[in-house]
Amino acid sequence: MTVTVVVAIGRNGVIGKDGDLPWPPTGDLAQFKALTMGHPLVMGRATYESIGRPLPGRTSIVLTRDPSWSAEGVETAGDLRSALARAAELDDEAFVIGGAQVYAAAIEADVVDRLVVTRVHLAPDGDAWFPEVDWSRWYETGREAHDGYDIVTYDRARP
């Protein structure tokens, strides 16, 4: 199974503020929908709650440490490995969509095959950051320039 991280990052590494994006909508949501449609989404509980509902046409797998937490129309998992195992039962590609702790867990576990990064041309204040990435382990495979942001795809370098 391919594990793809999808994230929007400011120039300063910020990805969020107060549970929301720290910039106005960039226009990358249509690309996000097209990219993820039909595939499972893995996200943290706070990210799910910021979205407020399951996204149509995709299975939402929400990571939570609270075994009593549930939401209609979503599946839950207690850890990243369980979430990815469930995603693998559903499809050959899963998308990790946040938040910061989930991104960090996926990168630290070394399970990510692809990064689709919206590089926002701003450096806003925030309270959530994308984790450190060893960019020497990734190579750029695509770039779309837009007004105020670029969408850049990176694949993991294989030894």
Automatic annotation (TrEMBL):
Which residues belong to the signal peptide in this entry?
none
- EC annotation from Swiss-Prot or TrEMBL: 1.5.1.3
Q: Could you provide one GO biological process annotation from this protein's UniProt record? A: tetrahydrofolate biosynthetic process
- CDD domains in UniProt: DHFR
GO MF entry, a single one: dihydrofolate reductase activity
Q: In which pathway does it act?
A: Cofactor biosynthesis; tetrahydrofolate biosynthesis; 5,6,7,8-tetrahydrofolate from 7,8-dihydrofolate: step 1/1
Q: Which residues form the DHFR domain?
A: 2-159
Q: Which UniProt keywords apply?
A: NADP, One-carbon metabolism, Oxidoreductase
Query: Its catalytic activity?
Result: (6S)-5,6,7,8-tetrahydrofolate + NADP(+) = 7,8-dihydrofolate + NADPH + H(+)
Query: What's a single GO CC term here?
Result: cytosol
The Swiss-Prot or TrEMBL record describes its family as follows: Belongs to the dihydrofolate reductase family.
Q: What's the stated role of this polypeptide? A: Key enzyme in folate metabolism. Catalyzes an essential reaction for de novo glycine and purine synthesis, and for DNA precursor synthesis.
The protein here is known as Dihydrofolate reductase
- From what organism does this protein derive? Aeromicrobium yanjiei
